[in-house]
Automatic annotation (TrEMBL):
Keyword tags: Membrane, Transmembrane, Transmembrane helix
Protein name: Endonuclease/exonuclease/phosphatase domain-containing protein
Transmembrane segments: 12-39
InterPro entries in alphabetical order: Endo/exonu/phosph_ase_sf
Length: 403
């Protein structure tokens, strides 16, 4: 015979079936009903227009609760409550030297410089090329200044220079320095900033106490107050005689300054314990952050105050890399232009002035001048010109000297 379920289990089974059909009803029926509701394109556009242009003119007063929304005094929109000065969005461009440099990467008054002690440039060629390819700040940097390149005459420049840069280097000479390994300085100039034909190597030097390379650049964009930009890469070993090294560097820079008095001078490199300001106090040091073990061993000098801002880059070697962002403002922008009023002459003004002379009351001016012919003519001409020729206001910039 067939087994029957107890009444309690039969009730639970019926209840489960009821819940199943109830959930199925709640799931399917709304979808079927919503399927019959359709909107045309015009109706949807009207709904959007009504929702976006709705004005809330009614003022709500909740004295016991803190306001969540408040009406802006400048607009009729409801904004989150709080300090209105913080809520209003500031318009304009982003500020900062790095943002300004990115906007005019190759048209800055002074070149942007990447200064680093690479300690064997041959081992870091792949990293440099990767950074030039994928990092905008490194790719658009105008000059790469490398010290301790450890290059020899057997290494050709094309094998270590990235694409789009011209390479100028001075390797360590074992006959002049007494060592055949280590040392060496290198300058890589961005072709977009300055072509290789506009770069001239002025002087290179190698000794046990000092190694440097000086180049002269005439970039595509150059402020009028500069005739050229002279960049010197310097490396002074830790065990060097700093006094002899600084004296040699001082004599070289003074000679170059006498030959190129209108040039901008930039001296950058690894100075270790030396300080160039002891010999050239008119130069300004722009690196104020530590570059190795809490000490500032890498320096950058120029003949302009606040010409650069030092931005440390992520350390990848024994010395931290420094990105020098130009902060110098050319003389054209340092002083505000002067305003003056001038008369704007035109062909129409000339013809109108001729007609004015025919209709002017000459007797009135003759009586006022007391028969003085000079005063008589001047008063007539000045009055007619002031009435006919329009006056406009123009800006006059400070004149600059061009070398």
């Amino acid at each position: 015979c067939r087994q029957r379920w107890p009444p309690r289990f039969a009730f639970l089974g019926n209840y489960a079936v009821f819940l199943f059909f109830y959930v199925l009803f709640l799931t399917l029926v709304p979808q079927v009903i919503l399927g019959f509701i359709t909107y045309s394109r015009e109706e949807l556009l009207n709904i959007r227009s009504a929702s976006t242009h709705h004005q809330y003119n009614q003022e709500y007063d909740f004295p016991e609760a803190e306001p969540v929304l408040c009406l802006s005094p400048r607009t009729t929109e409801w904004i989150p409550a709080g300090d209105l000065k913080k809520q209003l969005r500031k318009r304009g461009k982003r500020g900062g030297l790095l943002v300004r440099l990115r906007r005019r990467a190759h048209c800055a008054p002074l070149p942007s410089i990447l200064l680093t002690n690479v300690q064997s440039l041959d081992n870091k060629v792949d990293e440099i090329r990767a950074r030039v390819a994928f990092q905008r700040d490194i790719r658009d940097c105008n000059v790469h200044c490398f010290t301790e390149t450890w290059l020899t005459g057997e290494t050709i420049s094309e094998s270590v220079q990235p694409a789009g840069f011209s390479m100028h280097r001075t390797d360590r000479n074992k006959h002049l320095s007494g060592k055949k390994r280590g040392g060496g300085v290198c300058l890589m100039a961005n072709e977009t900033w300055c072509g290789h034909k506009s770069i001239q190597e002025l002087k290179s030097f190698c000794s046990p106490d000092l190694e440097f390379l000086t180049i002269k650049c005439r970039p595509h964009y150059l402020p009028r107050e500069f005739s050229s930009i002279i960049i010197t890469a310097v490396y002074i070993p830790p065990q060097a005689d700093t006094s002899m090294a600084l004296n040699k560097l001082y004599l070289t820079l003074c000679k170059l300054e006498s030959i190129h008095p209108e040039a901008a001078f930039i001296v950058a490199g690894d100075f270790n314990k030396a300080n160039l300001k002891t010999r050239l106090p008119k130069l300004y040091q722009h690196i104020d952050c530590a570059t190795r073990a809490g000490k500032t061993l890498d320096h950058c000098y120029s003949n302009f105050r606040d010409a650069y801002k030092a931005l440390p880059r992520p350390p990848k070697a024994d010395h931290d890399s420094i990105l020098l962002i130009p902060a110098y403002r050319q003389k054209l922008k340092q002083e505000a232009p002067t305003l003056r009023s001038v008369q704007r002459w035109s062909d129409q003004a000339d013809s109108t002035l001729q007609g004015c002379f025919h209709h002017v009351d000459w007797d009135m001016f003759r009586i006022a001048s007391d028969n003085n012919i000079d005063e008589y003519a001047d008063s007539v001409c000045e009055t007619c010109v002031e009435d006919i020729v329009p006056i406009t206001t123009i800006k006059t910039l400070k004149p600059e000297t061009v070398d």
